[in-house]
Design a protein that fits this description.
The protein is α+β, with helices and mostly antiparallel strands. Helix content is 22%, strand content 24%.
């Protein structure tokens, strides 16, 4: 278990979104981004337009990206709230 300094559990979500834009437009990802998760790990982001993605992320999260430049591979993203 991972806890905060006050003993409260840290909420972590990991999800293979199979395309950030598609998951966001379907609405599921919007709900998650506006939820109370402390850390969100997304795989297969499939979008090289990082600025467009940043515009969809609430200010409460710090965003970290790893773009994959190899053809046929996709990037990952980790969002975290200050603990």
């Amino acid at each position: 278990m991972v806890t905060r300094k006050g003993g409260e559990l840290v909420k972590i979500l990991t999800w293979n979104v199979n395309g950030y834009k598609s998951a966001y437009e379907k609405g599921d990802l919007k709900k998650i981004l506006n939820s109370d998760y402390d850390i969100i790990c997304l795989q297969e982001v499939k979008n090289s337009n990082i600025d467009a993605i940043k515009n969809t992320i609430p200010n409460s999260y710090n965003a970290y990206f790893n773009e994959c430049k190899r053809k046929g591979h996709n990037g990952v993203m980790v969002l975290s709230k200050p603990l």
